[in-house]
Amino acid sequence: MKRWIEQRISRQVMTIFYILIALVTLTSVGTYFYTQQSIQQTTVQLERISEQRARATDLFETWQSMQYELRGHVLLGENALLEEVRTAQGNIDEQTTWFEEQANNEEEAQFAEDARLLFSIYTTRVMPALEQYVIAKQAGEIDESFLQMRTVGQFMPKNETSTQTRFKLNSSSAADMSASIVDMESVFTDYRANLDFQESELRNALSKQLVKAQWMWLLILLGALFLLFVGLQPYILRLTNQLQTLMVNSERLATNPSATLIPIKPLQNEVGQLSKSFNEMATSLRTQQDQVDLEREKTARILHTMRDSIVYTELKTNERFANSALFDLYEHPIPSTERGSLYPIAMYYPMFMNQIDDKEGLNQFTRRAKEEGMFDETFTYTMQEGQKTIRMYAEPIDLQNERVGVIFVSRDITQETEINQMKTELVATVSHELRTPLTSILGFSELLKSRQLDETKRERYLEMIASETKRLERLVSDLLDVQKMEAGMGTPEFKVESLYDLLSDLLEIHAGSTEQHLFHFDCDETLFVAGDPAQLRQVFSNILNNAIKYSPDGGNVTVDVTCEEDTIQIAITDEGLGLSEEDMTRIFDKFYRSASEASKRIGGTGLGLAICKEIVQLHGGTIGVRSQLGEGTTMIVELPMVDHVNEESSS
Questions:
Q1: Rounded to the nearest 5°, which phi and psi values hold at 491?
Q2: What CDD domains does this protein's entry cite (predicted)?
Q3: Which tens digits make up the pLDDT trace of 14-56?
Q4: Gap between the Cα atoms of 382 and 292, Å rounded
C-alpha cells in the first residue's frame, strides 16, 4: 500500500487531503455539540431572568397602582377606590409569594424578603393610618384643605417593636410615611440592575464559552494536524528537499552552466523522474556550454590580437563591448589581463567620447548603422584635438536572419595620414627647391654655351652657377641627414669644444655674408660643451642663417649665452618676421613651413630646424622658440655644461 501511494504524488496528496477532511469533520462535530449544549443552558437561564424581570415589573406596577388608588381614596373618600386597593393588595401578596417560592440564589431571596417586609409595613402601618384619616375627615373631626402628613401620622399604630432594621419608620415624622413607596422603588431598581448584571454575565459567559469552543476546535485540529505532520514529515522532507535541490541546481545552471550541482538521489514518483531528466539535461547543457565557451574565448582572443579597435553594440540592450585595442587607442589601461571575453565599456564610454573632436558626426554615423542599416560608408574623424586621425566602418551581426548587433571597427590612420602628408610636402618642397637651382644652373649654362660674353658677365654667371650648386648641395645634404637620423645612423662623436670659439667662428662667417645686420655676442670664454663639433656648428649655423634669412630688412642679431647650474643656455634673437602661435607649435616638424606670405616668398625645405632638434636631443639638450608675429624670434638651445679640465684629464 505504501509503495503504491509513493508512486504518484496525486495519490499522496489525496491521502493527506482525506485524512485532513476526517480530522476537520471530527473536530467540528465535537465542537458543535459542545457549543450547542452551552447555548441551551445559557438560553434557559436567560429565559428565567427574563421571566423574573417581567414579574418584578408587574409587582412594581401593582405597587404603584395600589398607591395611586389609595391616594385617590384619601383625597376623594370613595369606597370603590378602597376596594381596588384591596384587590391590588391581594395581587401583591400572590406575586411576592411567587418570588419567595422561586428564589434560587441569595439576591432573589433578599428581593423576596424585602418585598414581603415592605408589603407588611405598608399594609399594617401606612394603610390603616390613611383609612382612619379618611373616616375622621368624613366625621368632621379633621378639617384640612389639603392632606397633612403630620395629621395622618397621628393615626399610625403606636407599637414600634418590629425587629427589622433594613427599613426604619419614624411615626413622629409624617414624611416618612411615604418611605415604603420609595424603598420599594429602590428595591425594585436594585433587583432589576441585578437581573441585568446576571444577564450580562450569562451573555459574557456564553461568548467566552463560544471562544473556548473555537479554541478547543482549533487546538484539537492543530493537534491532529501536528500528529499528521509528524507522521508525514519524513516523506514531506524527502520530497521538499529534492524539489529544493532541483531549484538550487536550476538557479546555478541558469547563472553558470558550468557550476557544480548538488547530487540528487531520485525518488520513485514524478519528482524522481523530473530529477533524472534534470540531471541528463544538466550534463548535456554543460557539454554544450563548454563548447560555446571555448568558441567564445577563441573569438575573443582573436579579436584581442587585432590591432584595429572593435566595439560590438547589442541592439536590444545597447550594451557595448570592446577589444583591448580600443583601450590602447584611447590611451587607457586595459581593465583586465584576462582575454577570454570582450570588455564591457559602459563606464568608459563617456570618457572615450570626450576625446572625440566631432562627437555629433560620430553619433550620426553610428546611428545610421544601427537604426537605418547603412554599412556601405566609412567615417573619418579626429580625436585629442587633432592629434589622432581615425577611420571607422560598421558591419552587421545577424543570427538566424535577425539582426542582433553591429560591430564598429576603428583604425588609427594618424601615421598613414602624416606619412601621406609628409610625402606630399616632400615632393612639393623638393621639387620646388630642386627646380629653382637647377633652372638657374641650366639657364646660366645655356647662356655661357650659346653666347659670347665679356669676362665680367662670364664670372658673374659662373658665381651664380656655383651659388645655386651649393644651394642644391645643402638640400641634398639636409635630406641625407634626415635619412641618417631616421635610420639611427646619426650618433655623434663627442669631443670637448669651447663654446666661445665655436660661436665666434660662426658669427664671423655669417657677418661677412650680410651687410644689413648687426651682430651682438656675449659669452664667457671658459664655457665648454661636449659634442660633435661638426653637428654643433650645423645647429648654430642653421639658426644664424634663419635669423638672417627671416629678417630681410636687417636689424640686430643677438647671441646671448648664460649659465644656470649645469646647463648652458644659448639664445639667438633676431628682429625679423616672427612666428604665429601655430607656427611655434610645429616649427620643428619635418617639412613644416610657415603659412605667412612673407615666409613663403623666402623659401626653404622645412628640414633645418627638424635636423637641429634631432642633433640637440642627441647631445642631451633641448631646443625651443619664443616669438611674436612681426616682432622677431628667439631660438633657445640648452646644452649640458662640462668641465674642460676634467674632460682633458679623463681623455
A1: -70, 125
A2: HAMP, HATPase, HisKA
A3: 667 677 777 778 877 877 787 788 788 888 888 888 888 888 8
A4: 38
